[in-house]
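Contributing new complexes? Match this layout with pyridoxal-5'-phosphate.
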Amino acid sequence: MKIDKCLKVLGEKDNFLMRNFQYFPLVVKEAKGSIITDLDDNKFIDFLSSASSLNLGNSNQIINKAIINQLNKFSQYCIGYIANEQVIEYAKLLTSVYPGGIKAKVSFANSGSEANDTAIKFARAYTGRQKLISFINGYHGSTYGAISISSCTNKMKNGLGPFLPEVFFFPFYGNDINDEVAERESTKDLEEAFEKYLPPKEVAAVFIEVVQGDAGILPAHPIFIKKLYNLCKKNGILFILDDVQHGFFRTGKMFSIEHYGIVPDGITLGKSLGSGLVGSAFLARSEIIDKIGVPGQVFTLMGNALTSAAGIAAFNIYYSKEFQDILEKNIKLFQKLGNNLKENQPEVITKVRSIGMSMGIEINDKNDSNSTYKIIFRCYEKGLILVSIAGNILRVQPPLNIEKENLEKGFNIINEAINDYKNGKISDEVLKYKQTW
Ligand SMILES: Cc1ncc(COP(=O)(O)O)c(C=O)c1O
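Output block (do not edit by hand):
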């Protein structure tokens, strides 16, 4: 594969940009639907969806049209001062599908991190309490509030404190434990804390990704969520869902919490909220959002008209019968392909966790800590983009509307890459590109 142009551009990257991950020497030239093209015109199937921020695929033509149409009218006008129809319409649509049909309102922001910071402020304002609870391995973002309630790696905290005080972390229980254990253990530490050192009447909110994303795509055990929710209700603690990564039908439903049948007090959204444009939101019961007065929570570009226009167009696609039919078929195929892969590769794949169109494939790295990277790199060389999370887990999140052939081709490539790895065909040479966790 020729990658001269990509390498030339990447040669300049670290001179001008802060350091970040670069899993492979790819520079995007163009991306359409589920295909990314690099500067050297190599083509790749996209199993990353820009970190689940392009659930309807790259450069979706219907959304592009809506953006251009809006751009020709006006791009944005600060809603902190003057309203526009687009943001009201988008808020109306988002709240119309709030779980449980309860009356909700929106406070927009720009990133998932900001949405979580927004939620922290509203939770404190509404409850008059300060303490916050979050779950180990959760990721809620990089701003000071959001990173304060995150606990997936110290690499995001080393030397950057102090963080928000009064944040308490408890274990997260995934659906990979049995019901009996979940019933007996899952809120034991929390209940003990409530009795001994963490007065529940001082806790404003619980923040949780019910499908932990960066922890390796781990859906919570339903008994854990039910018990946690009941504890929140009993003690007047807000239950806030972080659906930044798993909202917008990534799990097959608009909100991941719909798999658990409970109604959260608030939901944070980001990533696919703007369908490629910058945007995020905190949705919550109306009385919570009404609690902060003007100008208690405002960002100049929040709920801007372009993002709202893109979001409205995307919302109409998500709720169309055509999309829902595609999604249903894709989820069935995705799950089948994941199971087949695991059966084909028992020595290399130790676990597959999945929900909807989100999958974490755990690679056995006991004897070789580079195994995950080598597999990812060989996938790249064979024309598939995916990354690793939580060390040894392949993150598989293709566009929800990916074509059947590309979905199948992508899983075939993972299988071939694993075969190449097992047969010692991936040389240590590729490690020179390794810039991952
Ligand atoms: C669950 C979750 N919450 C919050 C965030 C932060 O979003 P952003 O990167 O847009 O600030 C992320 C990003 O990966 C996420 O996965």
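Reviewers usually confirm one structural detail per submission. For this one: The chain has 14 helices and 17 strands.
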